[in-house]
Amino acid sequence: MKKAFKLISMAFIALTVSAGFVACSSDDDDQPESGSGINQELATPTYEADAALYNITSANSDYRSIELTAAGNYVVVMDYGYYGAPARKAGVFRKSAIVSSRAYNNGIIEGTFTKTGDNTYNLKGFGTITVTGNGGTAVDLDITLEDGTDVNVTAARKNQKPDSMMTNNLCRTWEFERLRYTIKINNRVMFDKEVDVNNMRELYLALANAGALDDDEEIDWDDFEEEMEYMAERVIFTKAGTYLVEYRNSSLAISTWSWINENAGTLRYSWDYDDMEDDDYAGNVVVSFPGNNRMKIAESYYDYDDEDGESYNETITWTLKQA
Predict the structure, then answer these.
(1) What is the dihedral of CA 99, 242, 88, 97, to 10 degrees?
(2) What is the DSSP string of 65-78?
(3) CA distance 264 to 261
(4) Taking Cα atoms as reference points, which of 5, 1, 9, 123 lies closest to residue 66?
(5) For residues 125-143, b (16+ Cβ closer than 10 Å) or e, as one string?
(6) Residue range 243-253: mean pLDDT, rounded
(7) DSSP for 25-79?
(8) Is the pLDDT of residue 251 over 70?
(9) Does 27 score more than 80 pLDDT?
(10) How many angstroms separate the Cα of 160 from the Cα of each of 53, 61, 164, 167?
(11) Which residues pair with 18 in a beta bridge?
(12) pLDDT for residue 229 is more than 80
């Protein structure tokens, strides 16, 4: 029990300071616990037919990619935007090295768009783009920036993941609503608490009442409260394999995802675009769609102590609502 409380305490620090899941395991074969099994189909997003990721192919372009999402968001990655492995292990919503500040335009620009004509889009805060092509993957992008500058680039449209209920449900914009934190020892529930993401103090107090926060660990709520700005606030999934996380301080992190077992809702993410299999930078989660425009994402940590024969499992489950 003492060991369990120690790990709960450490996980809560990771949860608040790093704004994400524990996302590590002593056994590479471990999988997150299964989802609810309840998956209700959601309404089609407004810009489903317009969703596309355009990888820029022009030499010496200032842009690496421009993506339009089904929910009406755009993501522009500048050529100097950072793609690569993070400096440390990160959960699916944990702040990693692939983070830039939207305020300082450090490589990632994100906002909303509207369609203003045939293949013409107004990207709020960026400019307008018109997409032309012959029906293949190669296209031209005519860009007029907000300052009136005209830019023309060539691009390749990335193939989208095939339509399915699970993919169509996932690929939209989501806002974080609730968090549930569960810990089990030998499959016995030792702690289980769900809170609104705007009331993390309730979780903190529940952990304290459970004896998980010892005085000698110097855990102070004021310190956690200051770190709340680094918690994930919104996430965008797209059929091009992009997922982008916005934190409360408006910083952005961008990475990639794919299905492991779509029927079971098992999804794999990686903070390294070039390697989905490296467990140092990738992990698995389980998603489900219980209806009412909600999604649940669960990620688990597993361990087994050979010395005392105890199994340990902690799971963090986020509830998100469609933005």
Answers:
(1) -10
(2) EEEE-TTSEEEEEE
(3) 5
(4) 123
(5) ebbbbbbebeeeeebebeb
(6) 85
(7) BS-TT--PPP--S-BPPPPPPTTGGG-EEEEE-STT-SEEEEEE-TTSEEEEEET
(8) yes
(9) no
(10) 8, 24, 12, 10
(11) none
(12) no
Distance CA 49, CA 209 (A): 51
| The pLDDT value given to residue 36 | 52
In the numeric block, the tokens 């489900």 are attached to 288
The 10s digit of each residue's pLDDT in 176-204 is: 999 998 888 899 998 899 999 999 889 88
CB 70 within 8 A of CB 323: no
Q: What percent of the chain clears pLDDT 70, i.e. is strictly above it? A: 76
Question: How many CA atoms lie less than 13 Å away from 146 in the CB half-sphere?
Answer: 5
- Residue 7 has a pLDDT of 41
Place of tokens 């690569």: 84
Q: Which of 255, 262, 265, 261 is nearest to 297 (CA)?
A: 265
What average pLDDT does this structure show over 26-50? 71
Does residue 291 contact residue 13 with C-beta atoms inside 8 Å? no
Both tokens of residue 125?
Answer: 């805060």
